[in-house]
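#lab-general

N.A. 3:47 PM
ok so I finally got the sequence cleaned up, no stray characters, all 723 residues accounted for. can someone with queue access submit it? mine expired

B.Y. 3:52 PM
send it over

N.A. 3:53 PM
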Amino acid sequence: MSGNELRAQAIANITNRQPAAHTPPGKLEDLWAKDVFTLGKMQECLPKSVFKSLHKTIKTGAPLDVSVADVVAVAMKDWAISKGALYYSHVFYPLTNATAEKHDGFISVQSDGSVISEFSGKVLVQGEPDGSSFPNGGIRSTFEARGYTAWDVTSPAFVMETDNGVTLCIPTVFVSWTGEALDKKTPLLRSNAAMGKAASRMLKLLGHDDVAPVNSSCGAEQEYFLVDANFASVRPDLLLAGRTLFGKSPAKGQQFDDHYFGAIPERVQIFMQDVEEKLYRLGIPAKTRHNEVAPGQFEIAPFFESANVASDHQQLMMTVLRNTAKKHGFVCLLHEKPFAGINGSGKHVNWSVSNATQGNLLDPGDTPHANAQFLVFCGAVIRGVHKYGPLLRAVIATASNDHRLGANEAPPAIISIYLGSQLQDVFDQIAQGEVTGCQAKGEMNLGVDTLPVFPKDAGDRNRTSPFAFTGNRFEFRAVGSGQSVAGPLVAMNTILADSLDWMADQLEAKLRDGVELNVAIHDILRDIICDHGAVVFNGNGYSSEWHEMAVNQRGLLNLRTTADALPVLREQYIEDLFTKEKVLTPVELGSRFEAYSEQYIQSIEVEAKLVVSMAKTIIYPAAMRYMAELANAIDDLGDIGIEFGKDSVVTVAELTKAMMASVSNLEDMLTKHFMSIEEHMQFCAKTIRPLMDEVRDSADALEGEVADDLWPLPTYQEMLFIK
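B.Y. 4:20 PM
back already:
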């Protein structure tokens, strides 16, 4: 079957599709964490002393008593088997943005040939997957295959149920035989410990005697696209690259803003409800669902959780979205820019820090100007983002996210902070030497008696800011939709720890010199605003004026591409930061640069090879067939004395020739070799990508010329609007 016939068949399959039925899931209370080995389930089945030990580790970060592992393993196995599990898996998160798992059976063969179900504490605590093929950034050679997984008791075990069976899943860290972190979880746990230690030190200096462990929290808003699987199956670019490498913009896109928050299509809502049911069973607090800006784009957002659990749940959510989409005849696209010309997808990471005794440390309260605790922690964030802004840019740097950043649909690649008018005014007063008050929140009166009068926030929101304060947390808006949130959380926790340590050193010195506490705090905050206030910007981050001001007047970096951003990880001050806070060793940090740089290059080269293949084997034949048919038609018209259509043949011929010339050039460039990885990345950014765009420009123009019934690829109009 030819390409255009496959496209026609795909449309027929979709339009003739029978609506899927959805069975109401029942009460939320009955679903919640049904498939999770929760603290409540542990308390029911564990001896009191064992549960008490585990509970202390989970809640306070106390060292894990491995002597309890055998008892926990038996209880966990019995619970999992009662849910239908025959296998278990140590789940870990390598440097791929994906989730890794190896399944092992509970089966143990006895001497008499019989079998029993067995799961020991030793196996629970430590696993040994073959780690030879995971990215390691040069930490070890390929032939050195040993890697270890170690049980993370702070993230609950769960069972994953699929049509193929039930598996007990145990969240773990993943390290090499020599002890280096090969995963995203280990640095996250270290960064949270560093931040918690620094925050506790600061709280005690502020006069708190009772300080519970401080933890970071995360709530990540996940955007995604849904495309019918019939269309995706005949689009090699969607299948292999996750985005469309060709496609002419339809007459209607998102310009009417009629999709955003519109009525959710029935088929999509059934899919969403199925996803949410699965998430609730896994203890993932899905809170919000809605249509996003672009046609075919949607969002799901969970309630915030502790950062480590939230990171694990984010990985699980992406898995559930993809797998559930298949059951509903969709493909879920988590690429940051699946379709050119319309909004891409991000993953806004809402981040805060809190504990059980002092609460949310980034909550300004009703009088932020008088809330010294909040001002200290907010000031620490300002200093950290200014000093380490390039690091924040580097941890969101991927080939796919480069399509979003700075494209007037997402924040620019310049890292700045939005505080809002109220907090900006407070910090301006601090810089000037005296704080007398702050802007009131006020009320919203809509002038209609039947409508309520309600309090309004002291300031507006700013969607153009990459790092925005949004009431009681910071929202890192530049994170890509397909990324793990662990990297951004590691960076935010670590820079906060560094700033709090610096401020604590300053505060201790001033207190030793006899300076009164509030005066000392004011002086430190004034220094921070004077030295680091350049990073605060409340205006339009899309404007060319801001880009010029940020770079030329404020000294901020505009790292436009991943090729520009990733080398930041090699800077000495970044290495010093992670070494001082004991989050990443120099070897571990270097491995991240190597692994992520290689992924960037490979992503672009895979796309470039796809561009070449699709242009030569799909688009070029379609154009030639159309020219042949058109030429025959012109000849037939000429036989009866009508001269018509030659201009169309010339146009198609010129576009086809231009496309194939660009393809030939792109093929040649893909054979180049380079001495350094930095040089190779810059070549991908500045040469390969523009050549891919050249091929696409000609191909997309051809789509507008070739007869629709001969065009082989599902169009944007079809993929975005036919559900």
